[in-house]
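Researcher: I've got a protein sequence and the SMILES for adenosine-5'-triphosphate. Could you write out the 3D structure of the bound complex as structure tokens? I'd like something to compare against our soaking experiments later this week.
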Amino acid sequence: MNAFLQVEHIEKWHDCFKTLDGVSLSLQKGEILTLLGPSGGGKTTLLRILAGLEYPDGGDLCLDGEDLLPVAPHERGIGLVFQDAALFPHLNVEANVAFGLRMAGVRKRDRRQRVRDMLALVGLSGMEGRRVDGLSGGERQRVALARSLAPAPKLLLLDEPLGALDRNLRERLARDLRSILKQQALTAVFVTHDQEEAFSLGDRVAVLLDGRLKAMDTPEGLSANPCSLAVARFLGETNVFTPETLPDKFRKLAGGYCGKGGVLIRPEGIGLGPCPEKRKPQEEKRGGRDFHVQAVVKERRFFGTFFRVDLELADGLCLTARMPLSLPPPHVGVPVGLHFAPGTFVALSEA
Ligand SMILES: Nc1ncnc2c1ncn2[C@@H]1O[C@H](COP(=O)(O)OP(=O)(O)OP(=O)(O)O)[C@@H](O)[C@H]1O
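Model: Sure. Here is the predicted complex with adenosine-5'-triphosphate in place.
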């Protein structure tokens, strides 16, 4: 099946600096992609190229079967939402939301109805007459969203739309946003540098580092397997070892799972059991060889839905485990045996 949005080998230079280096990705209709990356990674540039606000130095773009590059920005059928809402301050809510419809020559009566529908969709029914300078940050973003949804774009691009809001409001709006996009079956690319937001909002998450697309997968897939050392480090994964820093005992346990870039030992795959010398003979049989790795609990912290347990092994190596609240948490200073569930060792590539 052909993709709805096809981005192929996009390159962009700014002066002597390669901002985007052969970025390729594709989206199906109705899919939400979150674009995650550090500041300066090229996220906004990619969005600007999709919107037609910048022209690439190489590559191709195709949306709904149409070659996008020759099409003027306002004819691409693409909606944009920015971090600062960018509302027209001299117009009220209704006129802001109706703006694109007016430009497209939609009749006044149809405009009014569409504005009403869009305001209902974003939870601002009855706010048509309000001045935009009196609105809260969250309300401004809802108006901006209604304005970009009103002309029924084929693709919606959102550049850190929640970046200026406080944490609680941000989480609530992110939930609302996802359900609005899904309700409208909209295809969207959402830029953020907030990992939690990227993982909770996107059907798939793409990681852009130094202008290169380093990974693209479902949130679950990416979290289970970040693929490369650079992505694992960017995602802030603990227990990441390069081939040089991986101790021999783990090299043996990891078996073939040590890639050229190293290995990630997934914290949720580390089980804590009785320390090897304290185990009874029947546990020895059940526990298998993995419990032979012994560690001491250095710290235990509560994270709302799990405990994070920092462990120190005999040779000074540190590991972090993630324990569900359903298990009794170990006490600090207590020696424990470690068990590694299947799939805990993930090979990382170098690139
Ligand atoms: N018009 C321009 N002229 C010169 N350099 C530019 C221009 N636009 C972008 N850049 C450079 O390209 C790189 C990527 O910028 P971009 O804004 O795309 O990154 P980003 O991932 O969106 O970052 P942020 O999260 O901070 O917005 C940066 O080093 C930036 O300085």
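Model: The mean pLDDT is 88. Residues 198 and 260 are 28 Å apart (CA to CA).
Researcher: Great, I'll pass this along to the crystallography team.
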